[in-house]
Design brief:
Blueprint: H1 2-37, H2 42-66, H3 74-78, H4 81-113, H5 126-129, H6 131-156
Helix pairs in contact: 1-2, 2-6, 4-6
Length: 170
Amino acid sequence: MEQVFARLERWLEPLLAALLAFITLGVFIQVVLRYLFATSFLWGEELSLFAFIWCVFLGSVVCSWRRTHFSFDIFSELLTGRTAGAQRLAVDLCVLAVTVTMAFTGWQFSQMSIARLSPALGITLLVPTIVIPLSGGLMTLVCLMDIARDCRQIWTGETPPRPTGMTNVE
């Protein structure tokens, strides 16, 4: 499973870079059009917004995989062995509750969005909202792998090695 997420990360990184470039270029063009030519395209703003939504949620999957989300790490630096694993397990169980909730409620929200159309583009709002349950499901899988790693650490008392697919250095 870790190899699957390592491949997914290698696929997501260029996609996130492209989305970020699209957002930057789109907003720049909108600002130039608005202030220099007193005109704008509503669909450009909407596309930038949709790209931003996808960028945030897909980026959160990568951050979950790399374990780089914002956190208070005072206890993780003080604890070792089984107690560090227990502390991480408690945190990961809380994160699991959030990601499962995000996946289920995101799916419900996406289903409600199918019939609604975006004002400027006229496309279904499923396009920007389907990423919510998708990212919630992926983060849930990452969290389950982390929980398994935590349980191994509690059982053995040894700090598990970092998965091979992770490119971030702590």
